[in-house]
Amino acid sequence: MTVRTVNTSTGLDPAALQSALDAVHHAGVPGVFAEVRDDGRTWRGASGVADVDTGRPVTADM
Fold first, then answer.
1. Residue 35's Cα: distance from chain center in Å?
2. What is the pLDDT of residues 4-62, one digit of tens each?
3. Which ranges of 1-62 would DSSP assign to H, the alpha helix?
4. Domain of life, per the record (predicted)?
5. Is 33:20 a contact under the CB 8 Å cutoff?
6. S-S: 25 plus which of 30, 33, 39, 48, CB 3.0-4.6 Å?
7. CA–CA distances in Å: residue 47 to residues 24, 40, 44
8. Are 33 and 44 in contact (CB under 8 A)?
9. What is the spatial order of strands in the sheet that 41-51 belongs to?
10. CA proximity to 62, closest of 27, 3, 21, 1
């Protein structure tokens, strides 16, 4: 699944990026992690669980 979330004035829109991850999780993916790099900046986000048996959440620093 590809989700485009670009804010042309700043390049990265953290709220839109997190919303996209949350949408992927709510669509049925147990857990999702993403890293976005743009013009020397990096954003990391996560949504859902890393381990469905324990419920351990996915974290952005995994």
1. 7
2. 554 445 678 999 999 999 999 999 999 999 999 988 999 999 999 999 999 999 999 98
3. 14-26
4. Bacteria
5. no
6. 48
7. 8, 24, 11
8. yes
9. 31-38, 41-51, 56-57
10. 21
Q: What DSSP letter does each residue of 10-22 carry, written as one string?
A: TS--HHHHHHHHH
The tens digit of pLDDT for each residue in 32-47 reads: 999 999 889 999 999 9
Is the Cβ–Cβ distance between 33 and 58 less than 8 Å? yes
**Cβ pair 53, 46 in contact under 8 A:** no
Q: What are the tokens at 7? A: 């804010």
Asked whether residue 1 carries a pLDDT value surpassing 60, the answer given is no
Distance from C-alpha of 15 to C-alpha of 13, rounded to nearest angstrom: 6
